[in-house]
Amino acid sequence: MVLGWELTKYNTPRNRDDLFYWENIVEGTQSEVDYVTCRDSKVLPIECKAGTSGKMKSLRLFMHNKHISKALRCSLENFGQIEYVDKQDGDAVRQVTINPLYAISNLFK
After folding, report:
1. Range scoring the smallest mean pLDDT among 5-9, 27-31, 32-36, 49-53
2. How many whole angstroms separate alpha carbon 47 and alpha carbon 54?
3. The whole model's pTM is what?
4. What is the C-alpha to C-alpha distance for residues 6 and 74, in angstroms, rounded to an integer?
5. For residue 28, what are the CA distances in angstroms to 21, 24, 61?
6. How far is CA 26 from the centre of its chain?
7. Rounded-to-10 torsion of CA 20, 12, 102, 53
8. C-beta separation of 7 from 105 below 8 A
9. Which of 30, 35, 66, 106 is 20 to 30 A from 21 in CA distance terms?
10. Buried b (16+ CB within 10 A) or exposed e, 47-73
11. Is the pLDDT assigned to residue 41 strictly greater than 80?
């Protein structure tokens, strides 16, 4: 929830994008992405983790289903980037940028 407040705080009044949440429930499985917003006229999913681990299954599923190539992960990890090839979507290249929670303000620079 703090991430949502920070994302809203660092937007300017002229550039105030709505924050959405995505949930996919399919017979016994549940997938969710914490925040979905718009950046540069493109859908941007944002996953928030309290620790440093996680396989990002929900984020990867969302990116695959919606054919999205870029996403953000905010966590206790250091700055970084994960790039992978989605073999099930015509070898599409997907990129997840990792941003530490303490540096949320960097997302808007």
Report:
1. 5-9
2. 10
3. 0.82
4. 12
5. 20, 11, 16
6. 21
7. 20
8. no
9. 106
10. bbbeeeeeebebbbbbbeeeebebbbb
11. yes
